[in-house]
Amino acid sequence: MAVQEFNAQGGLLGRSVELLHRDGGIDPDSHYHHVTELVRDQRY
Predict the structure, then answer these.
(1) Between the N and C ends of the chain, which has fewer C-beta atoms within 10 Å?
(2) How many domains does the chain have?
(3) Which domain holds residue 24?
(4) 8 A C-beta contact, residue 24 and residue 31
(5) What is the pLDDT of residue 44?
């Protein structure tokens, strides 16, 4: 709901904010994979 309110006010620097969820559990390698995937994806 907070993201919707934020976007209704114009988002961040004129761009909409999107909430992403990744679950790596307790596996550090999985967390690393998720972070690098998000960083490499120029869309986010």
Answers:
(1) N
(2) 1
(3) 2-40
(4) yes
(5) 52
Residue 7: the pLDDT is: 95
CA distance 16 to 10: 7
For 15-40, the pLDDT digits (tens) are 999 888 888 889 999 999 988 988 88
CA–CA distance from 11 to each of 6, 16, 29, 31, 40 (Å)? Answer: 5, 5, 32, 27, 22
Whether the pLDDT of residue 5 is over 90: the answer is yes
- Termini Cα distance of the chain: 20
Phi-psi region of 14 (alpha: psi -120 to 50; beta: other; left: phi over 0): left
Residue 37, both tokens? 């995937």
